[in-house]
Design goal:
Largest sheet: 8 strands, mixed
Strand content: 25-35%
Number of helices: 4
Number of strands: 19
């Protein structure tokens, strides 16, 4: 829920929240709890592996003739690509062998460990997987921005899907983490998450010449998520469709939004993939994201 100019959430009973005309709420009830770190209170939100009735995939195609999801290729000819025959042939010229002599794509589950060579990674779902997010109810500006490096925790979407920065580079691992057309995939722990502003991802497809379609309604001017520092994340446009002005290094600014008529500091998606803020200006709670899974992001350290 929204509560004034600070950008924070306020905890109210879910039934009450959904009766407030014009209000938007994370698609999940949350508890108002004491927050570890420099805050008095946090919203504690427990989410499952996937929202109900939510469609994911495709990820890795089976053969050179099939079309899968997308990937953010950072090798030679870097850019956003659809996983199709043309892509696999291009990366083969760069020394990568993701398919066998018969044109079958090497697909591996990162949860069990990929075999040698180059593999397209696609994890399986665990319907029992749960994650916990802590989001400050009243955001606090940090002394300096936090850069969102590989696997960095970005935030939680209104659909209760977690959001993270870039997946590991194929140049480092030799393996390619496939994304679906909404910029998401399954973590090795068995739960789905995004590496993009999914409700504005088709802007990136247009910018980068990708013929792909995300099944979600695209809303460039809409509220998409709350960052783990408590500030809202919107799409690449203002509510009236205009381009946001005076953005800082984290793609944020203070401005009026439909949810915050008094104005609020918030982030905007970029036009190119990955279309997420590059840094966070606020302070996140200690252990802001955790998973009950045995492996993957946020899993207990062994």
């Amino acid at each position: 829920m929204f509560d004034g100019e600070d950008g924070g959430l306020r905890a109210v009973p879910e039934a009450e929240a959904r009766q407030d005309a014009g209000d938007v709420v994370l698609d999940r009830a949350f508890a108002d709890v004491e927050c570890p770190g420099d805050f008095l209170q946090c919203a504690k939100i427990v989410v499952k592996y996937l929202p109900d009735n939510f469609t994911t995939g495709p990820y890795c195609p089976d053969t050179l003739s099939d079309v899968g999801g997308i990937c953010d290729w950072d090798g030679e000819n870097a850019g956003l690509y659809q996983l199709n025959g043309d892509f696999w042939k291009m990366v083969e010229t760069q020394g990568y062998a993701f398919c066998d002599a018969d044109g079958n794509i090497n697909i591996a589950d990162p949860a069990t460990g990929p075999s040698s060579g180059n593999n397209c990674l696609e994890a399986g779902e665990d319907t029992k997987a749960e994650q916990t997010a802590l989001i400050p109810l009243v955001p606090v500006k940090a002394a300096a921005p936090t850069q969102l490096i590989t696997f960095a925790q970005v935030g939680l979407a209104l659909t209760s899907i977690s959001i993270f920065a870039d997946a590991p580079s194929v140049l480092t691992t030799g393996n390619l983490p496939a994304l679906d057309n909404c910029g998401g995939h399954i973590d090795p722990g068995g739960w789905y998450h995004w590496h993009a502003t999914a409700t504005d991802i088709e802007i990136s497809f247009k910018e980068e010449g990708i013929d792909a379609d995300c099944h979600l309604t695209q809303s460039p001017g809409a509220l998409f998520a709350y960052a783990f520092d408590g500030y809202p994340i919107y799409g690449s446009a203002e509510a009236d469709g205009s381009a946001p002005a005076d953005l800082d290094e984290c793609s944020g600014h203070f401005a009026v939004t439909p949810e915050y008529p008094g104005g609020v500091y918030h982030y905007h998606a970029s036009l190119t993939f990955p279309n997420l803020p590059t840094c966070l200006t606020g302070t996140s709670a200690n252990n802001a994201f955790s998973s009950a899974a045995q492996q993957g992001i946020g899993a207990p350290r062994r």
